[in-house]
Amino acid sequence: MSKFRKDGGKELPPISTASLPDIVFMLLFFFMVSTTMREVTLKVKMRLPEATELSKLEKKSLVSYIYIGEPQPQFQKTFGKAPRIQLNDQFADVSEVQDYVIAEREARVEAERPMIVTSLKIDENTKMGIVNDVKQELRKSAALNINYSSRRRAER
């Protein structure tokens, strides 16, 4: 008869880590492709008004946004509760709108400049006085293609 001997001293073989860099780079690539970067940090409260007749913009890359609304709570100590204009990531006065539009136009290719749309994202509780002032500045800078952003009215 043969004897069976138990070797209790055997260790587990080490785990191969050769494919670990491939997995890490594959995950990194996935998150880089699937993540979208926020373009602007909103500093104003934004609840868009409701509308029924809406149309989508064709090329969103040709849209420059102007935000108008009451400042967020963390900015109210500095800027108050009156509606403010936000251009890119900073608050601005009405007189700065014309320079903003010109800078946005200069940043585009010559062929795209006539197709630029200025989209006004205005909080639904904002009074029309500041909106009219912004529209006058847009007229002065020849930005006549204006869009008002809104949200779809819920069906009742």
UniProtKB/TrEMBL annotation:
GO terms for biological process: protein transport. The keyword Manganese does not apply. Signal peptide: none annotated. InterPro entries: ExbD. One of its GO terms (molecular function) is transmembrane transporter activity. The keyword Membrane applies. It is a single-pass membrane protein; Single-pass type II membrane protein. It comes from the Bacteria. GO terms for cellular component: plasma membrane. It is found in: Cell membrane. The chain crosses the membrane at residues 20-37. Keywords: Cell membrane, Membrane, Protein transport, Transmembrane, Transmembrane helix, Transport. Belongs to the ExbD/TolR family. This is Biopolymer transporter ExbD. The lineage of its organism: Bacteria, Pseudomonadati, Bacteroidota, Bacteroidia, Marinilabiliales.
